[in-house]
Specification:
elongated, mainly alpha, 9 helices, Arc Repressor Mutant, subunit A
Length: 183
């Protein structure tokens, strides 16, 4: 199964399920609870779960809507950046040095990729979404530099954190907090 065929909402749903089950096939949770965490209505959450079931990424555990991630789902979520927050984010933070170091650069690149996959489904109003995208483009511009400036990257991520926190996006905000050394 190629994760390239997943919609933004399906990707977000899989990532949220991965988070709620701690990336283990033995864990299960309500599809409606997963959807609620993403701001989805019950019917939409059910549809997302069904779509992911048809791809073999999710399996039903109970008639009341209990679902679990499959081994294929875990692999797909990890390819999309899940789990990196649990290990890489915990180790790699922005340093106080003027130039991004190797581990910091890798952590920034991983977080940027994750946030870009999530951005379309965050359901942000236009202005905060435009601000988020501008901040991500600024970080991309710094990463293109042979000497990316830590202060610029930090400032952008502080702005991103404010946008995500005010929108109630706890998973994304937590990843940014860890990068900034606040989580």
């Amino acid at each position: 199964m190629s994760t390239h065929s997943l919609s933004d909402n399906e990707t977000r749903f899989l990532m949220e399920l991965f988070q709620k089950t701690r990336g283990m096939t033995t864990g299960s949770t309500s599809m409606y609870e997963v959807g609620s965490g993403l701001g989805l209505e019950k019917d939409t959450a059910r549809q997302m779960a069904e779509n992911l079931m048809s791809e073999g990424l999710v399996e039903i555990r109970s008639l009341s809507g209990g679902i679990a991630v499959t081994d294929d789902g875990i692999e797909a979520a990890k390819r999309l950046g899940a789990g990196e927050g649990d290990n890489a984010d915990a180790k790699a933070r922005l340093t106080e040095g003027p130039i991004l170091d190797g581990p910091g650069r890798e952590a920034v690149e991983a977080l940027i990729a994750f946030l870009k996959t999530q951005a379309g489904g965050l359901q942000l109003p236009y202005d905060p979404l435009a601000e988020l995208m501008a901040d991500l483009r600024t970080v991309d511009a710094q990463l293109a530099s042979p000497r990316p400036k830590t202060a610029v990257v930090r400032s952008c991520f502080e702005s991103v954190r404010t946008i995500l926190a005010s929108a109630g996006k706890t998973i994304e905000t937590g990843k940014v907090n860890r990068l900034l050394g606040d989580g």
